[in-house]
Amino acid sequence: MKNVLVIGATGQIGSELTIELRKRYPEGKIVAGYIKGAEPKGILLESGPSELADVTDGKQLHDIVDKYNIDTIYNLAALLSAVAEEKPLLAWHIQMDGLINILEIAREKKCSVFTPSSIGAFGPNTPKDKTPQDTIQRPKTMYGVTKVATELLSDYYFNRFGVDTRSVRFPGIISNVTLPGGGTTDYAVEIYYSAVKGEEFACPIAAGTFMDMIYMPDALHAAISIMEADPSKFIHRNSFNVASLSFDPEMIYASIKKEIPDFKMHYEVDPLRQSIAESWPNSLDDTCARTEWGWQPNFSLDQMTKDMIMALRKKFGK
Ligand code: AKB
Predict the structure, then answer these.
(1) d(CA 188, CA 109)
(2) Which of 7, 65, 181, 318 could form a disulfide with 33 if both were Cys (CB 3.0 to 4.6 A apart)?
(3) pLDDT confidence band for 100 (50 / 70 / 90)
(4) 31-62 per-position pLDDT tens digit
(5) Using a 6 Å cutoff on CB, does residue 80 contact ligand 1?
(6) Among 80, 213, 246, which residue has the most ligand 1 atoms within 8 Å of its CB, making it the best to mutate?
(7) Is the CB of 211 under 6 A from ligand 1?
(8) Does residue 1 have a pLDDT over 90?
(9) How far is 182 from 83, CA to CA, in rounded Å?
(10) pLDDT tens for each residue of 220-254
């Protein structure tokens, strides 16, 4: 991995992954691909090249791959679960038409491709606890439908054309740099912002609803290490369960209260997000990722809470 195109570089994952890749591969070209209206700024703009890279425009992507001699593509363009329910056709267009553009370019130019899947690739009849790597995948959301199709299409391009496709099923990602937008797990980010700003948090997910979550440094570690892994040990490719944290709103609230004792939360459950959350697993079994490429997360819930609060206090001067 030397010359990398990150599509969706100004989004929640992309804004941190691009910087991390630039630190890791200083000799390479790490191109921040963005769409109109989401131009890179600050360190993201200043630390390396950036290009307009609309995933639905195959020619534009092809030209970037040629210009920078790209060998690896991180395909992070997606509408998250709740917003994809409001705009299902757009979600399909971005996630599926975008993916096939990338896979065709990768086939021609021999690029490796990372396209994340999600806990959203599972549905209500999937085993809920310690969800196995290989199990029932019948999601009820458009987001989930596109994630299952992404896994299948990526495996198809590997098996049929030898394209080096790899992926992980991300839990909800918690970060302090760029806010996620329109996901079901977003509450677990927003709660920290409320706590640090001294606001009472209105939680859209009901007490007792468990979902897998991961802190951004662990998510970046997963996205980079799977692409660096020796593929000779892979039994799976698209896509690996990765687990780190599993909690419900009461547990993250209690963790924050240890740091900010007067923080308050009440429930204003959002029916759409709640129904999506209830259709997802409580916790994934990530044994295959651990044995096939050495996956191991680092952050516990309390360690993440301390780090999030410290970073957000600095960000908001609190
Ligand atoms: C979402 O909530 O839609 C995402 C996800 C779990 O893939 N964060």
Answers:
(1) 39
(2) 7
(3) very high
(4) 999 999 999 999 999 999 999 999 999 999 99
(5) yes
(6) 80
(7) no
(8) no
(9) 5
(10) 999 999 999 999 999 999 999 999 999 999 999 99
Contacts of 300 (CB under 8 A, 6+ apart): 245
- Reading the block at residue 57, the tokens are 């425009």
Cα 53 to ligand 1 centroid, rounded to whole Å: 23
Residue tagged active-site, from 68, 74, 143, 215: 143
CB contact at 8 A, 115 and 167? yes
- Catalytic annotation present for 143: yes
Residue that is written with structure tokens 């970060």 in the block: 175
What's residue 318's pLDDT? 87
State how far the Cα of 283 lies from the Cα of 296, in Å rounded to an integer.
15
Contact assessment for residue 2 and residue 27, using Cβ atoms and an 8 Å cutoff: yes
Distance of CA 287 to the CA centre of its chain: 20
Burial of 42 (0-12, 13-18, 19+ CB in 10 A): exposed
Query: How far is the centre of ligand 1, averaged over its atoms, from the C-alpha of 81 (Å)?
Result: 6
Burial class (CB in 10 A: 0-12, 13-18, 19+), 234: middle
Peptide bond into 239 cis (omega under 30): yes
Give residue 284 CA to ligand 1 midpoint distance, Å. Answer: 14
